[in-house]
């Protein structure tokens, strides 16, 4: 089978398409006939060696495919940028039926991170979501609105329309304006700290770069949660949350996707077959 992996750390050129045997699942594992994974920018740090991992490393944490003929979506540590993926049984759930299976690979990491960040938001709060144009932001704005928050989001012009579409009450173009309106909670989803003081009165939550603030800060690292993923899928099928896929690439183009990182908004799918 074909697999996109790295044997050494470095630039996008270290990504190789290898041909290896189809793996055999062990106890508590299943073999997923993989259709797609998605690109997450944290993988740039893995590729560069900022995060220590065993090599060779298969890219792609998000997984969409078939198990026993049934469409599933999931999250695997061992990499899903391959034609077949071994997944622990608790790492997959039935895929949504209302969107193409491949696009479902956009959901796990970005959706779960967004949800675990938005868990700190309560009804009626004013929330600033910084980095709303990205994969996590696309889910975070929608989930914060579902919780009854008033959402002020930052986005550049290319993402303004989409972010309004997610339900943001106000969109601030971060390339032209500094967010100054006082909010209860600020959610930070950008890989660099904000170059302005967080206007939060109660709490700053970051899933990305650490933020210095005069109020308590919280850093959220996504914890896989099967029930939460299944619930997200239900919300998508009920039309309560949309999945914003903005680009699709074949597995062979994984290095190109890494080269283009920073040019994307929304979620990017890498189809594995
Ligand atoms: N803690 C965790 O468990 C966890 C999990 C996954 C990812 N992460 C991290 O969370 C961050 C976001 O991930 P992601 O997947 O959402 O990233 P992403 O999809 O790559 O985000 C891209 C978006 O970032 C926006 N952006 C870039 N610079 C910005 C700035 N200065 N101000 C506001 N928005 C800016 C852009 O918005 P426009 O299109 O509007 O320009 C772009 O659309 C990354 O740093 C990632 O490494 C953390």
TrEMBL record:
Pfam families: ADH_N, ADH_zinc_N_2. Signal peptide: none annotated. InterPro entries: ADH-like_N, ER, GroES-like_sf, Lipid_raft_assoc_Zn_ADH, NAD(P)-bd_dom_sf, Quin_OxRdtase/zeta-crystal_CS. GO terms for molecular function: oxidoreductase activity; zinc ion binding. Residues 10-270 form the Enoyl reductase (ER) domain. CDD domains: MDR_like_2. This is NADPH:quinone reductase. It comes from Kibdelosporangium aridum. The lineage of its organism: Bacteria, Bacillati, Actinomycetota, Actinomycetes, Pseudonocardiales.
